[in-house]
Design brief:
Elements: H1 2-52, H2 55-60, H3 83-86, E1 103-107, H4 120-128, E2 132-136, H5 142-149, E3 154-156, E4 159-161, E5 168-170, E6 172-174, E7 193-195, E8 198-205, E9 208-213, E10 220-222, E11 226-229, H6 231-235, E12 241-245, H7 257-270, E13 276-279, H8 290-301, E14 305-306, H9 308-320, H10 326-333, H11 350-366
Parallel strand pairs: 1-2, 1-12, 12-13, 13-14
Antiparallel strand pairs: 3-6, 3-11, 4-10, 5-9, 7-8, 7-11, 8-9
Helix pairs in contact: 4-11, 5-7, 9-11
C-alpha cells in the first residue's frame, strides 16, 4: 500500500512538471509569434507610408468642407517657381529711381473705371500714391487703342481749317489705310487734339468726323497725310510708366497674337518708354488658344508681362478671401476666371480689379519703378 502511494505521488509530480513545461513553451511560442506579427505590421506600415504617405493622415482625415476658403484647400504638391512674384516681400531686381512716376493705363473695357474707385487703375493710385491716368475705352481692340496712343499713326486728308472756330469735316485714316474708331465709346484721351499747329476738338456726328479749332486765328492749309495728334500723345511724359491691357477684343489665336505684340511694341516705341507693364489676357471662353497667346506675350516681354490669368486661377479666390463655390471650381477646371471674381462672362468685379491692381503694383516695385 505504501509503495503504491509513493508511485502515485511520483506520477502526479511528473505530470505536473510536464504540464508546466508545456505551458512555458506555449507562452514562449506565443510571445515569438506576437513579436513576429508586430514586426510584420511595422514593415507593412512603413511600406505603405513610403508609397502613399502616412496611413494615419489618410484614414483619420475628415471629408473636405465645400465651403472653405481656397487657401485652406489641401496642398496638391504643385509648385510655382515664380510664386515669389505673387506673394511675400518684394525684392527689386533694379534700383528705384527716386522719383514718383505718372502711371498711364491703356486698355479697353477691362481698364475703364465705372466709379473712379474700384477699377485696377484706381487701386494703383491708392497703393502707389502716384498720379494715374485711365485711358480705357469700351469695346476697343489693340489697333484702336494704339491709334489713340500714337503707336498706330492716324493721318488727315488734305483740307483747310478756316480762321473762325467753325465745325468742318475731316477725313481720318490709319497709316495702313484702315478705319479710325475715335469717340465710338468714349474720348479716351482724344481731345483736345491737334491738326498741324491748330488745337481743337474732334466730334463724331452721324458716323463722320468733324473738327473745330479752339481759338480764332489764321486760315491753315492741311497737307495730305498730316498726322492727327491726340491729347494723350501731346501729354505723354518721358518718365511715364505705361500699363497696357489690350487684346481681348481682338480674340487672338496662336497665329495672330503677333499682331498684338507688334502694336504694343509700337506703342512703347512711340512713347519712348522702357518702363512698362503688359497684362496678359483672361477671357478663355473667347480665346481658346489663351495659354499659347499668353506664352507668346511672356516670351516677348519677360518680367514686364503679368500672366494675371494664371495667378487668378491658382491664388485669386484665396487672396481675395472669397469662399469657393461649386461654380468657381467648375470654372477653374475649365481654365476660366472663377465666377466669384467676375461680374459677367468676361469683365472682372471689384475682387478681380483689386487683385490685378495689387499685382501690377508688386511688379512695378519688383522692376524698380516704385519705392
Amino acid at each position: 500500500m505504501r509503495k503504491t502511494f509513493i508511485t502515485y505521488t511520483l506520477f502526479i509530480a511528473a505530470m505536473s512538471a510536464f504540464i508546466a513545461l508545456r505551458v512555458s513553451a506555449g507562452k514562449a511560442l506565443a510571445s515569438e509569434r506576437t513579436k513576429a506579427l508586430e514586426e510584420d505590421a511595422q514593415d507593412t506600415a512603413q511600406t505603405v507610408e513610403e508609397d502613399t504617405g502616412p496611413v494615419a493622415a489618410e484614414t483619420t482625415q475628415e471629408p473636405a468642407d465645400p465651403g472653405v476658403l481656397a487657401s485652406e484647400e489641401e496642398d496638391t504638391g504643385d509648385t510655382d517657381d515664380r510664386e515669389y512674384l505673387w506673394h511675400g516681400d518684394v525684392e527689386p531686381v533694379a534700383p528705384y529711381s527716386g522719383t514718383a512716376p505718372r502711371i498711364v493705363c491703356w486698355g479697353d473695357s477691362l481698364t475703364v473705371s465705372l466709379d473712379g474707385e474700384t477699377a485696377y487703375p484706381d487701386v494703383l493710385r491708392e497703393l502707389s500714391g502716384c498720379e494715374v491716368v485711365n485711358y480705357g475705352v469700351d469695346a476697343e481692340n489693340t489697333a484702336m487703342i494704339a491709334a489713340r496712343e500714337g503707336g498706330l499713326r492716324v493721318n488727315v486728308k488734305a483740307t483747310v481749317i478756316p480762321s473762325a472756330p467753325d465745325l468742318i469735316p475731316v477725313f481720318l485714316r490709319t497709316e495702313n489705310d484702315g478705319h479710325v474708331f475715335f469717340l465710338n465709346n468714349g474720348d479716351g484721351g482724344v481731345n483736345p487734339c491737334m491738326i498741324g499747329p491748330i488745337e481743337g476738338d474732334l466730334q463724331k456726328l452721324n458716323g463722320s468726323y468733324y473738327f473745330s479749332r479752339r481759338k480764332k486765328g489764321e486760315r491753315y492749309v492741311v497737307d495730305d497725310g498730316t498726322q492727327f495728334i491726340t491729347h494723350a500723345m501731346q501729354d505723354a511724359g518721358d518718365g511715364d510708366v505705361l500699363v497696357i491691357f489690350a487684346g481681348t477684343n481682338d480674340l487672338p489665336d496662336r497665329k495672330t497674337v503677333g499682331n498684338i505684340i507688334k502694336l504694343e511694341r509700337a506703342m512703347l516705341e512711340y512713347a519712348n518708354c522702357d518702363r512698362y507693364i503688359i497684362v496678359g489676357l483672361t477671357y478663355a471662353g473667347g480665346i481658346p488658344d489663351i495659354d499659347e497667346v499668353n506664352k507668346a506675350l511672356e516670351e516677348e516681354f519677360g518680367d514686364n508681362f503679368i500672366d494675371i490669368r494664371t495667378y487668378m486661377l491658382k491664388y485669386g479666390l484665396a487672396d481675395a478671401g472669397v469662399i469657393m463655390t461649386p461654380k468657381d471650381e467648375d470654372d477653374i477646371n475649365k481654365g476660366e476666371i472663377p465666377a466669384s471674381l467676375r461680374r459677367d462672362y468676361v469683365h472682372g468685379n471689384r475682387h478681380y480689379h483689386r487683385l490685378l491692381g495689387e499685382q501690377i503694383y508688386r511688379r512695378m516695385r519688383y522692376l524698380g519703378y516704385l519705392e
